[in-house]
Design a protein that fits this description.
Blueprint (H helix, E strand, L loop, with lengths): L6 H11 L3 E5 L12 E3 L3 E3 L2 H5 L3 E5 L14 E7 L10 H10 L1 E10 L20 H12 L6 E8 L4 E5 L1
Parallel strand pairs: 1-4, 1-5, 5-6, 6-7
Antiparallel strand pairs: 2-3, 7-8
Helix pairs in contact: 3-4
Length: 169
């Protein structure tokens, strides 16, 4: 469900970059791409996210779900990631973001929570293992993006305590 609040932002990136192939990096079970009636205010009714985005392909990748756990070998026009990065250990974040950029020809989009989750892991740790500020995420993406000059990027950070949303990129 974390994808749906951002489908318009992603559609805008698809249109402005001319993207026709996307990689959902950290897609979970990929149910967000099952065809179903999708009403988008101001845009109409669609047969699902793929129809709304009007792309040829969305490839799903999620290392924690066996059917999608194999890394792709090719690049995609865009890479999207929602509700993923805050669940990764902080020491892994730089290489994960770099890997996301390495799969993108045109853009990277990420939505990242900057607050502790309500749920905990079986070991008692918070489910959001990396809770950092919007500025921290912006600086990280800026640093990684320097190695990928042809790839635009946009991050949307969510700050739970006062429902602020910050868009960067």
């Amino acid at each position: 469900m974390s994808l749906f609040p951002h489908i318009k932002r992603i559609k805008d990136l698809v249109v402005t970059t001319g993207a026709v192939t996307l990689l959902d990096y950290g897609c979970g079970k990929g149910m967000q791409y099952e065809a179903h009636r999708l009403e988008v205010p101001g845009a109409g009714v669609f047969e699902g996210v793929l129809d709304y985005w009007d792309v040829d392909e969305v490839r799903c990748y999620d290392p924690c779900y066996a059917p999608y756990s194999k890394l792709p070998e090719e690049q995609f026009d865009g890479v999207v990631s929602t509700d993923v990065l805050e669940h990764c250990p902080q020491e892994d974040i730089p290489w994960i973001v770099d890997e996301m950029f390495s799969y993108a020809r045109r853009f990277v989009f990420a939505c990242i929570a900057c607050y502790a989750a309500k749920s905990t892991l079986p070991n008692g740790e918070n489910a959001h293992t990396t809770v950092r500020s919007s500025a921290w995420w912006h600086d990280l993406f800026t640093a990684v993006a320097t190695s990928y000059p042809g790839v635009s990027w946009k991050i949307f950070t969510e700050v739970h305590d006062n429902q602020q949303h910050h868009e960067h990129g």
